[in-house]
Amino acid sequence: MGTAFAFVVVGSLLRVPFPPAVARVVVVVAAMVLLLQEIGVLRFPILQNARLVPQFVTRIPFWGSVQFGMEMGTGMRTYSPTALPHIMAISIVFLASWQQALLAGAGFALGRAVMLLTFVAARSKNSADKAFSFELPRLRPLFVVLVIPMLALMVIA
Q1: CB 95 within 8 A of CB 24
Q2: Interior CA angle at 79 toward 58 and 14, to 5°?
Q3: Sign (positive/negative) of CA torsion 11, 12, 13, 16?
Q4: What does the pLDDT average to over 70-93?
Q5: Assign residue 75 a region: left if phi > 0, alpha if psi is -120 to 50, beta otherwise?
Q6: pLDDT tens-place string over residues 93-126
Q7: What b/e readout covers 91-108, taking b as 16+ CB neighbours within 10 angstroms?
Q8: pTM assigned to the model
Q9: What is residue 49's DSSP assignment?
Q10: Which residues have C-beta within 8 Å of that of residue 79, sequence separation ≥ 6?
């Protein structure tokens, strides 16, 4: 939720000089490009902060874990196999109200929790990794289809 809050604060400042129609066009164009990347029509790397668990987490008993948890939970330190969170980020910056930004943050947190719970429930980390790498390409079109109505509601409203 911290990231969604930051996005809506920055967005509130960026939106001021532009009419709402311009913001909608920016979101639609960016979303189209990212959706085309998502389904493989366009190929470019996704902007991400792909770093692993730092060594300091174990050396600083409490605060290391708190800092790492915040970074992972907000998406500041993560691998991203999909462009869909980037669509949400752009939508929040240019279109979202405070309430919508908080709901998006809660949805992101829920998605992160589902991923972690999947790994916890898996019999082995390797089997969970394998399942994600084999199933994610098949699920991608479904995720793209599911994001379109959300995006349409944000642009139209």
Answers
A1: yes
A2: 110
A3: positive
A4: 75
A5: left
A6: 999 888 888 888 888 778 777 777 777 777 777 7
A7: bbbbbbeeebbbebbeeb
A8: 0.74
A9: -
A10: 48, 50
